[in-house]
Each structure stands twice: as structure tokens, then as C-alpha cells.
Write a structure and sequence with these properties.
globular; alpha/beta
Length: about 220
């Protein structure tokens, strides 16, 4: 099974069981009755403004999107991108239940987004990019879909040193947001290599240990030039 298929299967199961694989971090009660899967609260750190167009990568059950939709108001729009059918169905149902009109959900991969160039003011993501096999492509896609001067605010899991090849080949560890994590400095370098600028750490918390690796829950911001 490929990493992508393993992740799809795992998260399709998670939404039906309504529990998360990751530490809920700041976000546990952000959206009532919608299960959360992240380690931070990037939407709260992005200073969203009315009228902005926002993309949430790995939107899951839609909690971050619904919060963002409230902040950008009726003149703004939020697009949730996810590759798992079960998550998309849950997100659409949650939006309908709460009567949110300025949000829509699109099926697609973070490494190759089915979205136009330069069309978003803000890109958000919470504990998703570590699950991607090709993280460089994800950051390149983020840079592509952002408008000039647009900003990216993401929370993710990183580590202090590379995981062993054995750990990286363990689907359970990868799908559990562990062994797909990069060394934090390498993670930040990929943003810059993708063309993003003013890369900075907004928050950094202890995520515990996995063997000899120190896990870090970080929130990061960068801009499109």
C-alpha cells in the first residue's frame, strides 16, 4: 500500500469513529461536535479579515473552515481541500447543518491541487503536510495558489533529527503523524526553496518523544513574494 492510500484509509476510518490520531493541541473545543485532527490553531494565528479568500489544506471534517468562514464573512470565501471522501462528506454535512454558505469543499491532493494560480489571500493547514510523501511539492503548490503578498499559516509536527528508514516505512507511525515528520530546519528550508519568504516560527511546543526523536508541534508563517 502506498503512503497516500494508507493515509486515505486511516482518515476514512477516523471520521466514522470520531476520534483523532494527533494531540488536539489548542483546538479541541474550537467547533462544537466536529472532531479535530490537528496540533495547533492556524486560523486563529492568521488574522483573517472580512472579504479574504482562504484555502484550508487537509480540511477534514471542516471545523477550521467553518471558523474561517465566520471570520471572512459573507464577502469572503473558504475552500477546504481534502483527498478523503468520508471527510469531504462529513465536512459538507457540517456546513449544511450550521447553515454556512461561504464555504465549499474540493477533493484533491496537496501535492497537486486542482485550483487556479494566485487565487487565495491565505492558506491554512493543521497537522497535514507531515502526512504527504512529497512535501516540497506541497509548498510549491501553496506558493502557486497564493496571491502575491498572500500568507500561509500552518501548524504541523516536526522533529529534531531524521527518523530511521524503518520508522518511515511503518505505515502506522506515518499515518499517526509521526515518522513522516521532517527535521524542523529542513521543513523551513523547503518553504524557502518553494519561493515563500519571511518564514517564521509563531509557536513551538513539546510534542513528546518517539524513541530517540523529540517531537515538536510548531506553527509557522510565510508569505508569497
Amino acid at each position: 500500500m502506498t503512503i497516500k492510500k494508507a493515509v486515505q484509509t486511516r482518515y476514512g476510518q477516523l471520521i466514522s469513529q470520531r476520534f483523532s490520531c494527533c494531540c488536539p493541541g489548542e483546538q479541541g473545543q474550537r467547533t462544537k461536535d466536529i472532531p479535530s485532527y490537528g496540533v495547533g490553531n492556524p486560523a486563529a494565528r492568521a488574522a483573517l479579515e472580512p472579504g479574504e479568500r482562504v484555502l484550508d489544506i487537509g480540511s477534514g471534517a471542516g471545523g477550521d473552515c467553518l471558523k474561517a468562514a465566520e471570520q471572512v464573512g459573507p464577502t469572503g470565501e473558504v475552500v477546504g481541500l481534502d483527498m478523503t471522501d468520508e471527510m469531504l462528506a462529513a465536512a459538507r454535512q457540517n456546513a449544511d447543518t450550521q447553515g454556512v454558505q461561504n464555504v465549499r469543499f474540493v477533493k484533491g491532493d496537496a501535492e497537486s491541487m486542482p485550483l487556479e494560480d494566485s487565487c487565495f489571500d491565505v492558506v491554512l493547514s493543521d497537522c497535514v503536510i507531515n502526512l504527504a510523501a512529497d512535501k516540497q511539492s506541497v509548498f510549491e503548490e501553496i506558493n502557486r495558489v497564493l496571491k502575491p503578498g498572500g500568507r500561509m499559516v500552518i501548524s504541523d509536527v516536526v522533529t529534531d533529527k531524521p527518523f530511521s528508514e524503518e520508522a518511515q516505512s511503518d505505515e502506522e507511525l506515518w499515518c499517526g503523524c509521526i515518522s513522516g515528520s521532517l527535521v524542523e530546519s529542513d521543513y523551513l528550508d523547503l518553504m524557502q526553496q518553494a519561493g515563500l519568504v519571511q518564514v517564521e516560527i509563531l509557536d513551538r511546543r513539546d510534542g513528546g518523544k518517539q524513541g530517540d526523536n523529540q517531537i515538536i508541534h510548531g506553527t509557522y508563517r510565510a508569505f508569497k513574494a
